[in-house]
Specification:
Shape: globular
CATH topology of the largest domain: FAD/NAD(P)-binding domain
Largest sheet: 9 strands, mixed
Bound molecules: flavin-adenine dinucleotide
Structural class: alpha+beta
Distance between the termini: 54 Å
Mean pLDDT: 91
Low-confidence stretches: none
């Protein structure tokens, strides 16, 4: 068993997409990087629908070939049924030449983590970080429990910079007590599980049996119902189905009752029930996450950076999570690389990074919250980001927001930033297509 070193330049907590990409960027720059991940990999993770934006980040870290070689399902776009209105969006209409993906996250995340190791980062799985002691020293001391083999021993490692990529447990934000839950109106619970042999929604708007995956590209299927929404994401040999419902709907239920609620809801909803008609639930696959929308007031400091879900998370309706994680990894590691070259400016770099990342998270929140309001969003920061986004990327997001009832905030901010009119004049032809009915 390889010993965990006593010190390093950068310590990364967590080996999800944020942590492994950050470790890759740093190791590729020759920076001594150690990553501690508490789970044994591959480990399960939710969030299987990836938008084509991810490629620009995976190209940067040089992992795109490995992802392509795995042969994940390529998706052409999405179909939403929202308040009974049906829309379809195709990435190719917005100039994307590479597809979105439906990935098994255990495999996808494992590819990214192994790549970080191949690039020279020292990776230790089954090692859980317990505490970050910033003390008076310039080098924070990170206390961990090493659970490898049969051991359960505590250890410590010092680093010059700490990256918290611990996902929704938000390790540092919890330690600093700066984690804020997003308003009570966004008090949602997500329940998801997996089915074998489901039908899927194809790019041709019809439903197909699983065998047709060889000839018809799938789309991500999203539908609203009562006060919640659902996803249906076809994977290579199973299907991910998730329900987002107000937390109070399952209040007081134990695990078994939640599973009954999940199965009954799936069986009664139009479209979804037709897709699942021949399918079989994979027993034991139900998972849930309550009150999952939150943000942190402070995500960067002189010697720490919180990235990915460790910094913030909001309703996953636009499949943003993984690309945010990859973006943050690129931004934070740029700041760290510059700080290592020029330590006197490290506070300035961390502030620049904080503002850039809050801009990005703010945009995600504005996009996803829609008529839930702009909770915790710095409108000025978001407007600046809107002005600087590549036009087609912004347009895709504006159109995607319109497919649901979540467009209020982004449209207002885009109008105030002076870009909405430009889009309406110039690109009014490029919309999500309205469909009359689906042939299921
Ligand atoms: C219901 C739901 C649906 C979603 N759907 C999508 C989707 O379709 N598309 C999309 O792009 N995103 C989606 N997301 C979001 C996506 O899952 C996350 O944004 C993404 O996984 C964030 O990556 P990360 O690296 O920040 O965190 P994670 O993937 O959560 O990785 C964090 C890692 O840190 C490790 N860790 C935690 N604490 C410690 C510790 N103390 N010590 C050591 N290691 C630790 C964990 O074991 C984990 O491996 C969804 C999220 C939810 C809740």
């Amino acid at each position: 068993m390889t010993a965990i070193p006593r010190s390093c330049d950068v310590l990364v907590i967590g080996g999800g997409p944020a942590g492994s990409s950050a470790a890759t960027h740093l190791a590729q720059a020759g920076i001594d990087t150690v990553l501690l991940e508490r789970a044994e990999f591959p480990r399960n993770q939710v969030g299987e629908s990836l938008i084509p934006h991810i490629w620009k980040f995976t190209d940067l870290t040089g992992v795109s070939d490995k992802i392509e070689r795995e042969g994940f399902l390529a998706k052409a776009g999405g179909i939403t049924v929202w308040n009974d209105k049906i829309h379809q969006i195709l990435f190719s209409d917005f100039g994307y030449t590479r597809p979105g993906l439906h990935v098994e996250r255990d495999i996808f995340d494992d590819i990214l983590l192994r790549h970080a190791g191949d690039c020279g980062a020292r990776i230790f799985t089954e090692v859980a970080v317990k505490k970050a002691d910033f003390g008076d020293s310039d080098r924070p001391e990170i206390i961990y429990t090493d659970k490898r083999g049969r051991g359960n021993s505590d250890g410590a490692i010092r680093c010059r910079y700490l990256i918290d990529a611990s996902g929704h447990s938000s390790f540092l934000a919890s330690q600093f007590k700066v984690r804020q839950t997003i308003s009570t109106q966004m008090n949602f619970l997500s329940l998801w599980g997996y089915f074998k042999n489901s039908r899927f929604v194809g790019v041709d708007r019809r439903s197909h049996p699983q065998e047709a995956l060889a000839r018809v590209k799938p789309v991500t299927f999203v539908m609203s119902f009562e006060d919640g929404w659902l996803w249906h994401i076809m994977l290579r040999d199973k299907t991910s189905v998730g329900l987002i419902v107000p937390t109070e709907r399952t209040k007081g239920m134990d695990r078994r009752q939640r599973e009954v609620f999940f199965k009954q809801t799936c069986a009664r909803l139009p479209h979804l029930s037709a897709l699942l008609e021949p399918a079989e639930f994979i027993e034991g696959s139900l998972q849930f996450r309550p009150d999952y929308s939150y943000y942190s007031q402070r995500i960067c400091g002189e010697n720490f950076y919180c990235i990915g879900d460790a910094a913030a998370f909001v309703d996953p309706i636009f499949s943003h999570g993984v690309q945010n994680a990859l973006y943050n990894a690129a931004a934070a590691t740029l700041a760290i690389k510059e700080s290592l070259k020029n330590g006197k400016n490290r506070l300035r770099y961390s502030r620049l990074c904080e503002s850039r990342m809050q801009q990005f998270y703010g945009f995600s929140r504005a996009l996803s919250l829609g008529d839930f309001g702009c909770n915790g969003v710095d409108a000025g920061l978001v407007k600046n980001l809107i002005k600087s986004l590549p036009p087609l990327e912004l347009e895709l997001l504006l159109v995607a927001a319109e497919m649901t009832n979540r467009s209020d905030n982004v449209h207002r901010l885009a109008r105030e930033a002076g870009v909405l009119e430009k889009f309406e004049e110039k690109f009014s032809g490029r919309n999500a297509e309205r469909i009359e009915s689906l042939e299921f």
